[in-house]
Amino acid sequence: MTLQNFCLKESEFGTLAFSSRKEMNDLTTGTGRNRKVTHHCYFLYGQKHAGGLDVFVPVDAVVPALEHDQTVRLVNPVVEGLAQRSDGGGIINWVVKVDTLEAL
Predict the structure, then answer these.
(1) pTM of this structure
(2) N or C: less crowded end of the chain, CB within 10 Å?
């Protein structure tokens, strides 16, 4: 089975505010010496995401300096499924990838 990416309307994310940069959650490829960061993780929150939302931005994207509680807009958000094997089958983690974040 193939996982398909899908896009959500901006209104489905609601108003989001910047909380912090989460370096421990950056997306990577490879292992050991060959490990490379592909996307930086930014933690956002809003009324529709009370528990917070990890948003991933490519390493080469330009992201403005953000202040805590600053309102942001997601540029071209795509929700992508990352599949992972487990003992009893598989696990799918849904992640939000964007081209960049814009400060409002």
Answers:
(1) 0.86
(2) N
